[in-house]
Design a protein that fits this description.
Helix content: 55-70%
Largest sheet: 3 strands, antiparallel
Radius of gyration: 21 Å
Shape: globular
Strand order of the largest sheet: 3-5-4
């Protein structure tokens, strides 16, 4: 029976014992989901690809139940989808998804720069992402360049020093990576943004957050338009 302390009825905690086993499984599932999310963000699993329970659970040395829970978490994040009697697949984004992703990016990334306060800013992660992208471009490694671009925008949002913003952007940018796969020529798409990433980083290093925000707003609109055009071309070609 629940006790009474100070006029309040304390909760009966006996049922929590049943949750103890699932707690460990949940923690593992979240870690598995984080691994798969990162792999999607890196382009390892392209849109439309089927994720094999047997292969992935074996590779990660986790149970199928844990993997299924991870799949459920990533489905909730709109990265995966379950097709009846067919399995689990990486989502293929629609044009509406793309529009909404960029709406969120514009709100979050620009706000992160707008609220920076007084310089200097800690640009370690921003500079690292820019440099990685530049080096990947020199090596002609456009998948790595694409990932570096994602990391750059993660780092911009990270300047807000908000764990909730970081979590939101991880999910949004993982979805965005799915959109990049429609670009037939990744070099043509990513190369022009390398210099723009560098310019934004330089503006921030100079303490000009307002100037960096203006550049970012134009940048995001250009990127959205290019991807939307690529989606339209793909639909026309079907």
């Amino acid at each position: 029976m629940a006790g009474n302390a100070g006029g309040r009825t304390s909760p009966d905690l006996s049922e929590l014992a049943a949750d103890s086993a699932s707690l460990a499984r949940s923690g593992t599932a979240e870690r598995v989901a984080a691994i798969l999310r990162d792999r999607i963000m890196e382009g390892y699993f392209p849109p439309g690809s089927r994720l094999s329970e047997e292969s992935i659970s074996g590779a990660l040395a986790v149970s199928r139940n844990t993997l299924r829970e991870a799949f459920r978490l990533l489905s909730h994040e709109r990265l995966l989808e379950h097709r009846l009697n067919k399995g689990v697949f990486v989502r293929v984004l629609a044009v509406d998804d793309l529009v909404d992703i960029y709406r969120v990016r514009l709100l979050v990334e620009c706000a992160a720069l707008r609220t920076l306060g007084e310089p200097p800013y800690d640009l370690t992660a921003v500079e690292a992402a820019v440099s990685t992208g530049e080096q990947a471009a020199l090596a002609g490694d456009w998948p790595v360049c694409s990932t570096a671009n994602i990391r750059f925008h993660q780092a911009l949002a990270g300047l807000a020093n908000s764990p909730r913003t970081d979590e939101l952007m991880r999910n949004v940018l993982a979805e965005l990576r799915l959109a990049f796969h429609v670009m037939a020529d990744p070099r043509r798409f990513h190369e022009p943004y390398l210099s723009r990433n560098r310019e934004i980083a330089d503006r921030l290093a100079a303490g000009d957050a307002a100037g960096a925000e203006r550049m970012l707003a134009f940048y995001l609109e250009d990127s959205r338009r290019q991807l939307a055009e690529a989606y339209a071309e793909r639909l026309t070609a079907r």
